[in-house]
Amino acid sequence: MTKVHRELLSRLSPLRAVNLDSAYGFQLNVPQMSQKLEEYFKVSLNTELTTLHFTNFEKSNELERTLFKQQVRQANYVFAGPGSPSYALAQWTPLDLGSDLLSVLEADGTLCISSAAALTLGAFTAPIYEVYKVGVEPYWLAGLDILAAYGLNCVVIPHFDNNEGENYDTRYCYLGEPRLRFLEHLLPDGVSTLGVDEHTALIFDFSNDSLRVQGRANGYWRSNGAERILENGSTTSIAELRNAPLVPRATTHVENTELEAKEPAELGRVALDGGPESVKALAQLVQLAQSGGHGFIDPTSLIEGVLTARRSARESGLYELADQLRDLLIDARVEVNDTADGTSWSLR
Q: Model's pTM, two decimal places?
């Protein structure tokens, strides 16, 4: 799909590309998976892809959740792919990540969602592992329902033409035809199925209300027992597929996760106050520590702001966060010295 990625990336400048590791966050090889994706983007697409790490909602704290949501909203190319759709939903649904992904689209960014993650885009999500590997009776989970914001009331099924099973039906994302038909029978009236073959892209251009098929094979729109093939190379008006009233775009605008204050010292004071905005301020300070200032600004106010956030984290018992902030400064070649009289710093 290199050609597709290149086309989608070419329209964005400056490019802020991120990878979400949540869908494969349950695996033991998360770092290796992320590295493989980052290397593909760097070598094949000449693109720096930054992995946003968020693998467990229950084990995360409010700061980590706020930071993740901020970083997603600030990206303009969001990639998510392999893993488990049900595991991805378990992390993203309580986080309300759907609103953040819609915010990326509202800002004229691109969502590149494939494989397991693609199943989460519709009104309902099929739990593939539970059905295919564990053998439970097929059922639906509530999806992120991203496509409903553009009037498409459907579920998404990738790997539509999979044939890994050879003499065993693994089409329709390993469900097989009998299970897919059973699941479709369980859908409420008016909910259709959007399918996409492997090595194939369905490119939604919501500004032009069009859907284009590119890659090796086809897309599919199944409704009320009938199937329409969206042929490779074709362009279809989304209005032809729309089977529900368009959800007003105003519903995609949710509470901003960033503060108006931009100066590090001011953010540090907000974080130190410990009020309702302190987590947002800490999240912005972490991002500034990761990305701001190299060779362009006097780092004094930034470093002082991070140290203020670190002190606040320690006083609040967030020792792991305090250590992370110290490590960020060390990575930026800042020597941090804790003494009985306080903390001092110097540039290496």
A: 0.78
